Amino acid sequence: xxxxxxxxxxxxxxxxxxxxxxxxxxxxxxxxxxxxxxAARFSLEREVTQRQERRAxxxxxxxxxxxxxVFGISxxxxxxxxxxxxEPTQLxxxxxxxxxxxxxxxxxxxxxxxxxxxxxxxxxxxxxxxTAGAVTETPTVxxxxxxLPPLEPPNCPSPDVQITAPVAGSxxxxxxxxxxxxxxNSFAYYKxxxxxxxxxxPNFIAQFDRPxxxxxLGYWTITGDYPVGGPHRFRLVxxxxxxxxxxxxxPVFISP
Length: 256
Known about the structure:
This protein is of the alpha+beta class.
């Protein structure tokens, strides 16, 4: 039943056109029957013409009622979906924060001082003057932390196209539950894309045909073909019926 109602809501414009055309046609037929009724001279002819006129007005009422029914479904169905969609309470399973590299302080080189004060006494010769030994330093190379690649900020300018989970900069793996909002005027569909680091074009992941407001947008399954590391650009692209797109792009890291 829910599938039928969703289909009716998506095809509402076609139903409006069909109901309008049907109502206009039967209004024309009812008007023609009314003119024939006024011109009729025999009782049998008048009776038949009256039945035709009543039948035409009944069909006009049915087309109008059908149009109102489709309008009510298209208006109330999205509101019911928003009311029943749970708010995200925590990040999806498989999402872990990116570890921060911590630089280890380098140990300080300690110089060693050796003194050789051994004197040899020779009769009749002056006593040697003790000399201080040379100072020897042993340099120690300090370990350096590997810097993380630069992380660009998320790019989600429209409040109607947002990704709330995973958060920007997260490390993801396995099956990721994507939360957010994808609901614009003249909505047609939305899709997930991933643009790997260093690539010029995004790769298609999945497409969805129903708008979502603050709920689960879908699931993203990360397979072994995805390159580990990042940052990669995860994209939510919402398309309207005219072909216009609105994007939300966040950086993510893929864990092994």
